[in-house]
Amino acid sequence: MEAFGLYNYWIVIFLMMSGFYVVIARGNLVKKLVGLNIFQASVFVFYISMGKVAGGTAPIIAEGVETYSNPLPHVLILTAIVVGVATTALGLSLVVRINEEYGTVEEEELAGKDPAE
Amino acid sequence: MGGEFITGELIGVESIGIAMLWALLIPAAGSLVIAWLGRWPNLRETVTLVTAGALFIDVLWIVELYSRNGGTALTLWEIFPGLGLTFTAEPLGLLFALVASSLWIVNSIYSIGYMRGNGEQNQTRFYICFAVAIASTMWVAFAGNMLTLFIGYEVLTLSTYPLVTHSGKPEAIRGGRTYLGILISTSIGLLLLGLLMTWNIAGTLDFTPGGVLAAPLAAGAIGGPMIGLLLFLYVFGIGKAALMPVHRWLPAAMVAPTPVSALLHAVAVVKAGVFTVVKVIVYLFGVDLLANTPEANWLLYVAGFTIIAASVIALRQDNLKRRLAYSTVSQLSYVVMAAAILAPISVVGAAMHIAAHAFGKITLFFAAGSIYTVAHKTEVSQLDGIGRRMPWTMGAFTVGALSMIGVPPTVGFVSKWFILQGAMQTEQFVAVAVVIVSTLLNAAYFLPIVHAAFFRPPPDDDHAEHGEAPLPIVIALTVTAMGTIILFFLPDLPLGLARQLGIGG
Amino acid sequence: MIASVHFPILQIVLPLLLAPVCVLLRGARLAWFTALTASWGAFGIAVALLYDVLAGGPVSYAVGGWNAPWGIELRVDAANAFVLTIVAGIGAVVMIFARKSVEHEIGDSRAYLFYSAYLLCLAGLLGVTVTGDAFNLFVFLEISSLSSYVLISLGKDRRALYAAYQYLILGTIGATFYLIGVGLLYQVTGTLNMMDLAQRIGGQEDLRGVHVAFAFLTVGISLKLALFPLHFWLPNAYAYAPSAVTGFMAATATKVSVYVLLRVFFTIFGVDFSFGQMPLGEILMILAVAAMFAASTVAIFQNDVKRMLAYSSVAQIGYIVLGIGMASVTGVQAGVLHLFNHALIKGGLFLAMGCIAYSIGSTHIRDLGGLGKRMPWTAAAFVAGGFGLIGIPMTAGFVSKWYLVLAALEQGWWWIAVLILLSSLLAVLYVWKVVERMYFQPAGGTGETVERAEAPLGLLIPTWILIVASIWFGIDTRLSAGAALEAAKTLLGAG
């Protein structure tokens, strides 16, 4: 039961591994970025789970509430999400430029396009 | 930052520290002025000669000050805590500086004749590098600790590289590669390691009479095998001493113009090598310490082997400069072997041999270059009858050859005498045998040249009309040949210095 | 005196705020001038901080008045004051270089974007160095990383785009690993402040969470600092980035990552945990030695000199990590010292390549023939820098190698000492390959036209500033070795 009770951590690990796998295994530059996003999202879930206090509520002072969740990880992850969005945007714009220059976003096809040094 | 930067006595004209600094600054400044005057060859050559003369006078002045007041250490600044750029005047260094600075004058005169006679390219670069090489030689000669010496040693390697590859032809580049490859890899791979190990063990790298390793040995920090290992690192790390098997750079560097070969063989490079070996044996290990360490005995045999083997190889070389190169390899090991005999009297012989070989070998190279300049001959077999056309050149060659063999009245006899005496005293009969055998071999590869030059008729197909070499070349080789003889009769100055070393060690 | 109290934050804020100003100004010259002001201002502050710290001990600054451990603390001690000075100094010198180089390689119309990204990158790197908060470090790391992806992609060659993309993927993975590590640590300790973390980890070393956090942090940072075998992003990124960017990044970005590694190992986890309980010393030593030999060997076979120098950087990082892996005062001192010296040497070398790219338009070895005559000053700078890489005496490289070998001998690892010296001989091979080409080969192809094509002073001066510095610190080591010693003592003492 305890293992099941920590199900959100299992989800974190599943997301992390599948995202990581996509980054490594896929040859399409856009799909790699998707994998990277999944990978990052798993970390977001991890931080959010970490801040949750059992039975706690949102950290807004209200009558009759004794336990609050820890707000700090949630705040942190807001920052991390912003960073993630910026990374994705930059990555996609690089892919656009690569597509303009090479006419493809497939890794294998890119490899042959430049003369070998 | 001046005040705290430099420690040691610097005040007054009488200061030996100031004089030593001048010995470094004169050639260094000379190289700058030469670079600046590159467009006016006559002016440039004048500067070279003036610099050489000034340096020689300065070195004489240092010797004079030393005999009057003794040496003092001058620390410029500390590179590492407790380990600085230190310069000291001591007998061996003075002897080396004296030999190098006096031969530089002659070599400069010769260079001018040779470089102009052969219409070489890039002469300005040549003279600049030459002056830098001499500056670093002075640096090596006056170094007060092993780190300082190492720095000068490396600068010397790098500043002579452009000289070796002067022609820029593919074979020059190949030769340069071997030259630099062996010298840099031995010095960084072995010598620097030995240096650091010594520093780690002894906590000092200062050249100290009696050596720096005695205290750690007494304290049990190191043992005999460690000393044997350190000796290995030093002796083979000093690639410039050309002990077999790290001698290959010397024949490879024969692609250089002849004045450079003379610089390498007589004035600076190889002499810096054997000088360093002697210095390490006397002032870092200590003669007594090595004499009591059975693990250090191998040096004698390696040096003896090199002497014989290099002579045998020299015997089979037809190219004159290569034959001389292998002769140098052999003669250098005389110095190393003399130091390895580990008797005070043989250390005197080692110091004397540095001077003796310098004068003899530079004469031989001058002669070889003279033949090349006038007759464009490089092989021994082409030299039949050449002595009749170039009497001065071949006369000087003969004197040089006799000195190599060790026949009186040449200075080569003096140093061999001391080496033999040391070997007899310590009953190292292997060394005695080596000296005798190698003397025979030396005679076997030098005398036929002399014989052919004077007593064989010139070949019939040789119609090239040529006489004696240009005047600067003749002057230079006559002066050094005279020097070889004069030093036999008046060996007081070098011998006095060498004797002090023998007592000190 | 108020200003001096705020130095730690001003250090970051100055370039950070002037970055958007560059965008607003638009004009290439104005933007450059703004960036120049910002980078030299940051350098001035860094030097002032270094003197403060060496004289009066660590400086702490609570951002926004919120005290640690709740607020973000900026903390400057001997270790990061030293790194700050290097980063800001290189940033300032390269900025002089950037004027001509950017005009030539990127064009005036887009120059303001370059300067803006450059300032952001500088701010990020300075922030990473100055912060005392583990999460804040991640944010600054990403600021610098994101802007460096942009900077790399500005390279003239289209391969720069793909290089930037690869770096983006690997860099993000590295940063995310770091983030996971920090998260795990927060879970165990409930704090993000480094000093606080260090105290609270004490006594909890056996928790699996701490072990896993340690592993994530180590791998994540190793990716960012291109520790062999995690270096694959680096050669392409350095080879195709604009010259000014390569010079700046090679001298700073990996160095800052090394600093982060030092902080994590020594300050947060402490030397007993990192090197006693975890087998870190052995792992780092093996990887470092592998880097020294493998990367140097690969460098020998490179034909593009920028790529060659990039591989050489991977090897040199090996030396730095080797020193750190010894975990002794001399070892860490050697590592930190080489971090400083290598920044100068490699910065100078890459700027020299920038000069060559400016005049000849190529850094391929076949195009470098006759350069000794055509660009004597640049070629001489390359030779002097190359001496530093080899470790010839009187150059900075010699000094760091001296300490490194000494540290190995102190540990009794004499075979490591042998390996260090042997691997520096590999540097002779690749440096000399270029030197021979520059001085002994006639100018490529045609061969007849040997005309002077020296780079303009605007490029030569900054190149020579770095080269002269690399020689100066090989002769007078009191400042560099002294500061490195203080840094090593601080790092090891804190554990």
Main sheet record of chain B: 2 strands, antiparallel
Largest interface: A-C, 31 and 30 residues
Strand content of chain B: under 5%
What average pLDDT do the residues of chain A reach? 86
Please give a handful of descriptors for the protein shown.
heterotrimer, A: 117 residues, mainly alpha, Helix Hairpins, elongated, B: 505 residues, two-stranded antiparallel sheet, disordered N terminus
Note down, in words, how this protein is organized.
The complex is a heterotrimer of chains A (117), B (505) and C (495). In chain A, 71% of the residues lie in helices and 0% in strands. Chain A has 5 helices and no strands. The N and C termini of chain A lie far apart (59 Å). Chain B has 505 residues and is mainly α. Chain B has a two-stranded antiparallel ribbon. The radius of gyration of chain B is 22 Å and the shape is globular. Chain C has a two-stranded antiparallel sheet with strand order 1-2. Helix content of chain C is 79%, strand content 2%. With 495 residues, chain C is mainly α. Chains in contact: A-C, B-C.
Question: How does the SSE layout of this entry go?
Answer:
The complex is a heterotrimer of chains A (117), B (505) and C (495).
Chain A: H1 2-5, H2 7-25, H3 29-51, H4 71-102, H5 107-111
Helix pairs in contact in A: 2-3, 3-4
Chain B: H1 2-5, H2 16-36, H3 41-69, E1 73-80, E2 83-88, H4 91-117, H5 123-142, H6 146-164, H7 170-202, H8 214-218, H9 224-237, H10 249-252, H11 258-267, H12 269-285, H13 287-291, H14 298-315, H15 320-341, H16 344-375, H17 386-389, H18 391-405, H19 411-425, H20 429-455, H21 471-489, H22 492-504
Antiparallel strand pairs in B: 1-2
Chain C: H1 2-5, H2 7-25, H3 28-56, E1 59-62, E2 73-76, H4 78-105, H5 108-130, H6 134-153, H7 159-189, H8 194-201, H9 208-224, H10 233-240, H11 243-269, H12 271-277, H13 280-300, H14 305-326, H15 329-360, H16 371-374, H17 376-390, H18 396-410, H19 414-440, H20 457-475, H21 478-494
Antiparallel strand pairs in C: 1-2
Helix pairs in contact in C: 2-3, 2-5, 3-4, 3-5, 4-5, 4-11, 4-15, 4-20, 4-21, 5-6, 5-11, 6-7, 6-11, 7-9, 7-10, 9-11, 10-11, 10-14, 11-12, 11-14, 11-15, 13-14, 13-19, 14-15, 14-18, 14-19, 15-17, 15-18, 15-20, 15-21, 17-19, 17-20, 18-19, 18-20
Q: What is the gist of this entry?
A:
The complex is a heterotrimer of chains A (117), B (505) and C (495). By secondary structure, chain A is an all-alpha fold. Chain A contains five helices and no strands.
